[in-house]
Amino acid sequence: MVTLFHHPLCPHSRFVRLLLGEYGIEPRLIEEKTFERRPDFLALNPAGTTPVLIEADYVVPGAEVIAEYLDETRGLGLGRHRLLPDDPIERIEVRRLYDWFARKFFQEVSDWLITEKVTKRYMTRAQGGGGPDMEVVRVARSNIRYHLRYIGYLAGRRNWLAGDRMTHADLAAAAQISCIDFLGDVPWEEDEAAKLWYARVKSRPSFRSLLNDRLPGLAPAAVYADLDF
């Protein structure tokens, strides 16, 4: 049994959930509010961040570490559909794009929008909660436009973002965008190629559990679960 400590709108957790879905693994999900700083969770991951995967007696913290662990333990079983290429040169581009979305996109878009529009509403004043800073929201909404254009540039020249087949790069990008799509802040009119690429990933069976995610008092955008958006 695989257990995953996650949060429904943590894009790094969503990346791992997509990975698990592609491997045909249905994890036991435990929702973790990292701002609560639970001692039991900090004992698993002193960094206090999600996701954390547990399998047997192994604690695997962090999306990138989990992705490598899953590839090393199960990647060969996917054959030509392996999500991290066999060729070390091809892996460079996959890892470069994973880093782009897991760090740059997250820092410039996802983290700001999720913190301001979601996380702060569930935090107490002492924890830093309160209303959203709309200036931060406006900057994040502006930043996502050039990220979409970059995705469109890649998708318009390759079959998938990093090359001929779907990889960690596609799942990392889709995980980040799915959170913003939940909030209704993706300007899909910005780039048609990016929209078509996302529709391909969104239609995969591994995405179904993400499309069913809901948060108390916060409904997803109307197009969030629509495969023909």
From TrEMBL:
Domain GST C-terminal: 87-224
Keyword Transferase in record: yes
Domain GST N-terminal: 1-78
Domain of life: Bacteria
Keywords (A to Z) from UniProt: Transferase
GO biological process, one term: glutathione metabolic process
The keyword Transferase is annotated on this UniProt entry: yes
InterPro entries tied to this protein: Glutathione-S-Trfase_C-like, Glutathione-S-Trfase_C_sf, Glutathione_S-Trfase, Glutathione_S-Trfase_N, GST_C, Thioredoxin-like_sf
Gene3D superfamilies found in the cross-reference section: 1.20.1050.10, Glutaredoxin
Subunit relationships: Homodimer.
Protein name in UniProt: Glutathione S-transferase domain
Lineage per the UniProt record: Bacteria, Pseudomonadati, Pseudomonadota, Alphaproteobacteria, Hyphomicrobiales
